[in-house]
Amino acid sequence: MKIVHTADWHLGKIVNEFSMLEDQEYFLDQLIEKLKTMDADVLIMAGDLYDRAFPPKEAVALANKTFTRIIKEVGIPVLAIAGNHDSNERVEYGSQLLEASDLFIEGTVKSLTRKVTIQGVHFWLMPFSDPVYIRKLLNDDTIHDLEDATRVQIERIKEEMNPEEVNVLIAHGYVVNGGLESVETSDSERPLSIGTAEYVPVELFEDFDYVALGHLHKAQKVKWEKVRYSGSPLKYSKSETRHKKQLLHVTLDKSGVEVEPFELERKRDMRVVKGFFSDLMEQASEDYIFFELLDEEYQMDAMNQLKKRYPYAMGLEYVARQNRQSDAPVLTQAAIEERNLPDLFADFYARYTDRELDEARKQVVASLMDELERSERT
Ligand SMILES: [Mn+2]
């Protein structure tokens, strides 16, 4: 069995006011062409097909076109589940009918997880849902959080599953090896729950031969080779600019799993560019760029100026100013007590304005302090 594993397309996503639709369409065209040349039996999309529960119509049209082309032009089935950004019911629209065309989209959680068998390999489609919904659906009061909900769903799968055969789980969420610090998160992953633990221990998935995960935007394995996040195919936040975005080509049978990541060309890269304003204004780029300016002084209308040369500029920070502020010496309590208030104020003024307090201002501060002291005494 050869699988192409991808996830977190977030169709219709807007990053810093830029729609990603053109980039997403470009990527999906590349994906279809690549699938035509590679040896793959099935495509998995492990959740967050859309970025929002009510995606823009262009995003729905793009999903429709893409799935149709993969099935008709490439000729392989597609297995997809809802992620936490998707509307479970909307994603599932027409699902029973589409099954006949090899498009298997599972939106809502079922009392028994849906199984799809392709060439003798069993795929279990476990969409994301909140634990309160799952607790009611399964009528199980032991379910309090996502870990409980997942455990109960897996127990029910195991009652039906033949461990002698090849079983693949498709799921969406934080799957961790110990704590949340065992995985690498990004800024564009929305929290899964408020108030209860949102992660699930990887050990729950031990009996599967491969686990195709979605939610984390950085490609990574969790504890074992066979438990994988493909990551998102595109960069969706500044925190992802260093990621090597990829898809996974997975070859598996009962003896084990072999995972080969592959990359596709992007329409525009998203990156961080560091430099002085005047130097940057001598260059140009059509990538998505987060600027980190090294200038110590604020530049007049910097973002609008930069946008003339970098039409896809996404953000701007004055990193030299931030560094200097955080590098400023921290006074100990004893040192503070040794110094008088006017001196401490002069330090504060210099740090935040980049100017020394001049004599005239010093006089004003001193007289204000005197007045304060007098009024405190009376
Ligand atoms: Mn997600």
List keywords for this structure.
12 helices; elongated; six-stranded mixed beta sheet; alpha/beta; 3 domains; 378 residues
Describe this structure in words.
With 378 residues, this protein is of the alpha/beta class. The chain folds into 3 domains: 2-262, Purple Acid Phosphatase, chain A, domain 2 (4-Layer Sandwich), CATH 3.60.21; 270-325, no CATH class; 332-377, no CATH class. It has 12 helices and 19 strands. The strands form 5 sheets. A 6-stranded mixed beta sheet has the order 6-5-4-1-15-16. It has a 6-stranded mixed beta sheet with strand order 7-8-9-12-14-13, with no helix packed on it. Helix 1 (21-37) runs parallel beside helix 2 (57-74) and helix 11 packs across helix 12. The radius of gyration is 27 Å and the shape is elongated. The model has no long low-confidence stretch (mean pLDDT 92).
**CATH architecture name of the largest domain:** 4-Layer Sandwich
How far apart, in Å, are the first and last alpha carbons?
87 Å
Number of helices, counting only DSSP H or I runs of 4 residues or more: 12
What is the molecular shape? elongated
> Numbering strands along the chain, what is their spatial order in the largest sheet?
6-5-4-1-15-16
CATH H level, superfamily name of the largest domain: Metallo-dependent phosphatases
Residue stretches low in confidence (pLDDT < 50, at least 5 long) are none
Residue share in β-strands: 15-25%
